[in-house]
């Protein structure tokens, strides 16, 4: 290669990335049951292999794929859904395209690869469809409501009752009742307004998301006896739920992560702080002693 050392590094990195992504898409294609999605993934895999072969002709070298990336993205797709895994990987490709732009003056053929990445693969990815993504709105409803209601309620109960097991039991009863109420409300709302989603499935996604959030928030109160340690751990769990789910939504739906995380975290923490002081006031005003 008659290029600078920096250009050589970029080209070799591009070659490795393309063969890695080829193997990832190939694995995903073998594991997906949907025939349409399998064809989409197989076509993308062919494109990535073609890109790799282009770079190999320039480098005249054989590079090993990134086995860790293959494991990571394949696992993400299996655990969190095919569309999530594919879009997460495409985010990495967006970064790689910036380096491709740097190669255009020396390798004009790179323009065709960039165009292929921007248009052809983007169009294929838009064709991917999963049931999970249709019900993301229902999951968000359950999570948001559980985070806002339960963080506030548990913060208030912590100061009002000051007994971990009692807070946990009251919180669990409140959470289960609220989950059933939210699931029923989602069922009626979907049945009336949304013709694409199944009302029963929509209510199930809402209720399950709510219940899991409730259990994750209250489990410190069942395990530990220090009421303020439980409160702090509960708030940390709430932020973790917001972080994980906001990341999932931002990748799957191509939305801004920072803005959505800031909104959800700020709302949950604000409600918790307000209810913390309400609990303190109620305990002192009514002379609660349990």
Let me know the largest β-sheet.
none
Alpha-beta classification? mainly alpha
Counting DSSP H or I runs of 4 or more residues, the number of helices is 11
Give the SSE order as H and E letters: HHHHHHHHHHH
The fraction of residues in strands falls at under 5%
Please bin the fraction of helical residues. Answer: over 70%
Q: What are the segments in which pLDDT stays under 50 over at least 5 consecutive residues? A: none
How many domains in all? 2
How are the secondary structure elements laid out?
Layout (H helix, E strand, L loop, with lengths): L4 H27 L3 H25 L7 H14 L1 H22 L6 H17 L4 H4 L1 H26 L2 H30 L5 H25 L3 H26 L4 H30 L4
Give a brief description.
The chain is mainly alpha-helical and 290 residues long.
Which characteristics define this entry?
single chain; 290 residues; mainly alpha; 11 helices; 0% strand; elongated
Descriptive report:
- There is one protein chain.
- The chain has two domains: 5-129; 132-286, no CATH class.
- It has helices at 5-31, 35-59, 67-80, 82-103, 110-126, 131-134, 136-161, 164-193, 199-223, 227-252, 257-286.
- Helix 2 runs antiparallel to helix 5 (110-126), helix 7 (136-161) runs parallel beside helix 11 (257-286) and helix 8 runs antiparallel to helix 9 (199-223).
- The mean pLDDT is 78.
- It is mainly alpha-helical and 290 residues long.
